[in-house]
Write a structure and sequence with these properties.
Helix content is 36%, strand content 27%. It is an alpha+beta fold. It has one domain: Endonuclease, Chain A. Strands 1-7-6-5-2-3-4-8 form an eight-stranded mixed sheet, with helices on both faces. The N and C termini lie far apart (54 Å).
Length: 158
């Protein structure tokens, strides 16, 4: 078991990168708006593209409280959503879930980055420990079960 406490944003972003790199089949994210994990930066977006193309079974699930930053400021992630609709799903969470204050990044069932409060970098990184990750995986499934609005990369209209 390897657990690390993170207190600075630069360390948090490094932990995001390490948690992403650990993924071999699934990435699950619950976040207020995807601004702080910096998934839109070129390196992370390129990794996510490689991850989604590496195997047809690889999946990326994202649940957000606010999808406006994704729609307005994340062309790389939106392109991934358009290119991999079978492997990448994004939802805006149900209203009753918006009161939750933390964030989660889960890689496979063994690695996690848990931010305690959405406004602060204070986080817990869990490396290669399925037992420690299990409660967070359960919580992510509960958040999904609450429902929400799917986000599509397609623009509807005339």
């Amino acid at each position: 078991m390897n657990t690390e406490l993170i207190t600075h944003w630069s360390d948090y972003r490094n932990a995001v990168r390490q948690t992403l790199l650990a993924a071999t089949r699934s990435i699950r994210i619950f976040d207020p708006d995807l601004v702080n994990p910096c998934l839109e930066n070129p390196e992370n977006a390129l990794f996510l593209r490689g991850f989604l193309t590496a195997a047809p079974r690889n999946t990326l699930q994202i649940v957000l409280k606010n999808v406006a930053p994704l729609r307005n400021n994340s062309p790389r992630l939106f392109k991934l959503l358009a290119d991999f609709p079978h492997a990448m799903q994004v939802w805006e969470c149900a209203p009753q879930v918006r009161r939750l204050t933390g964030a989660m990044l889960l890689s496979d069932d063994r690695h996690a980055l848990i931010r305690i409060d959405q406004d602060h970098a204070r986080s817990r990184a869990i490396v290669d420990d399925a037992a420690e990750c299990r409660p967070y995986l359960t919580r992510f499934d509960e958040i999904l079960a609450e429902g929400g609005t799917p986000v599509s990369a397609m623009t509807l209209g005339l």
